[in-house]
């Protein structure tokens, strides 16, 4: 079989109703599959006013809103209509991108019909409770995730560091890589716009520390804010530029009253905002890859990031940026201070980061996942049995 023989049913918790890095990657991948001649059908929670138009045919699955985070929805079952649609479509591979109830039902549906299933891992859900004072739940969530992923023929992670963590957590016997690419028409140093910087109140000689992402606490907003406080105490010249939107925006604005908040940006506007920074500060430990880090690198920026999954495979410490122990406020402040005070060091790291970003092209990245699809279909056809874990 080649790619034209693929009939992929993709299950997502959020395919297009709230924009994030995960569903941007999924939509790009579906577009790639369709261009290669594969058949694809997407099943996801939906809303009446999605953030963007979906790529491919999207079927709405029953869902409910998340208490306290009503912008998100949980798809919870394969309804009669969804089952009828699935049967008519006749997939030969199931792809689940979120460990939600719908994903569980999809895997069960596939196993009952001897159809292989692949899961993609997009975030570290087990780390989320610590940002809401519920760290004691992490072992339980990790156990639930293990049960979910072990039922799949293979899982794919966006970075080798994340893949290795999944192996250590005994999530699956078969862990591959589906990394992320970069749109070089949008993210490049030529997007830098000093006039735009001035229009939002940033002086030409002021080093800009940027944050890009959804404004939610699990992105490390508390660590970011505390670090910026230390820079102010040390009298380090800087300006903070925040690009993104989310439920924690009011909290973040109160913590950083002197920062510039642009709100949500996309396309060329996002490229302009990122390229107009001087460095990216990414203290989050929840990412499995760090799309924003790669985008900043492609714009020629150094990144100061937490030493965590995702960032470890993008940032080379003291070459393309700095990797700091998660939560180490003083060390984060020292690294940012060095880049703020030393333009030459900042430019050298940015040039090295841009060279590193050249490795990531979307077509090569997406073909790697297609190859995984074809391999698991071939293995299942040859009678391979599902192996749940490398550790009994």
Automatic annotation (TrEMBL):
<dbReference type="InterPro" id="IPR028098">
    <property type="entry name" value="Glyco_trans_4-like_N"/>
</dbReference>
<dbReference type="GO" id="GO:0016757">
    <property type="term" value="F:glycosyltransferase activity"/>
</dbReference>
<dbReference type="Pfam" id="PF13692">
    <property type="entry name" value="Glyco_trans_1_4"/>
</dbReference>
<keyword id="KW-0808">Transferase</keyword>
<dbReference type="InterPro" id="IPR050194">
    <property type="entry name" value="Glycosyltransferase_grp1"/>
</dbReference>
<protein>
    <submittedName>
        <fullName>Glycosyl transferase family 1</fullName>
    </submittedName>
</protein>
<dbReference type="Pfam" id="PF13439">
    <property type="entry name" value="Glyco_transf_4"/>
</dbReference>
<feature type="domain" description="Glycosyltransferase subfamily 4-like N-terminal">
    <location>
        <begin position="20"/>
        <end position="185"/>
    </location>
</feature>
């Amino acid at each position: 079989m080649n790619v034209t023989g693929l009939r992929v049913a993709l299950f997502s918790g959020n395919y297009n109703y709230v924009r994030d890095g995960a569903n941007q990657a999924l939509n790009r991948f579906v577009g790639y599959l369709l261009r290669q001649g594969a058949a694809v059908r997407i099943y996801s929670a939906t809303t009446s006013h999605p953030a963007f138009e979906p790529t491919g045919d999207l079927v709405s699955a029953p869902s409910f809103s998340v208490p306290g985070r009503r912008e998100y929805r949980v798809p919870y079952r394969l309804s009669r209509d969804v089952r009828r649609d699935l049967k008519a479509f006749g997939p030969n591979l199931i792809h689940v991108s979120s460990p939600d109830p719908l994903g569980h039902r999809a895997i069960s549906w596939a196993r009952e019909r001897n159809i292989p299933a692949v899961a993609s891992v997009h975030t570290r859900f087990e780390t989320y409770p610590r940002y809401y004072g519920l760290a004691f739940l992490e072992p339980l969530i990790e156990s639930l995730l293990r049960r979910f992923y072990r039922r799949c023929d293979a899982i794919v992670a966006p970075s080798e560091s994340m893949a290795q963590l999944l192996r250590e957590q005994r999530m699956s016997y078969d862990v591959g890589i589906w990394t992320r690419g970069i749109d070089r028409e949008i993210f490049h140093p030529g997007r830098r716009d000093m006039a735009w910087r001035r229009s939002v109140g940033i002086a030409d000689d002021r080093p800009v520390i940027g944050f890009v992402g959804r404004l939610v606490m699990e992105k490390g907003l508390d660590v970011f804010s505390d670090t910026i406080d230390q820079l102010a105490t040390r009298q380090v010249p800087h300006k903070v530029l925040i690009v993104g939107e989310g439920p924690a925006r009011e909290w973040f604005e109160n913590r950083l009253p002197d920062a510039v908040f642009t709100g949500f940006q996309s396309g060329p506007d996002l490229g302009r905002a990122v390229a107009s920074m001087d460095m990216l500060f990414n203290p989050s430990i929840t990412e499995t890859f760090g799309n924003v880090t790669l985008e900043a690198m492609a714009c020629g920026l150094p990144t100061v990031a937490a030493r965590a999954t995702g960032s470890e495979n993008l940032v080379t410490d003291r070459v393309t940026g700095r990797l700091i122990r998660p939560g180490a406020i003083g060390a984060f402040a020292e690294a940012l201070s060095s880049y703020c005070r030393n333009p030459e060091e900042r430019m050298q790291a940015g040039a090295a980061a841009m060279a590193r970003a050249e490795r990531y092209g979307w077509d090569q990245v997406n073909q790697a996942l297609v190859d995984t699809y074809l391999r698991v279909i071939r293995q299942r056809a040859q009678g391979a049995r599902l192996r749940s874990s490398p550790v009994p």
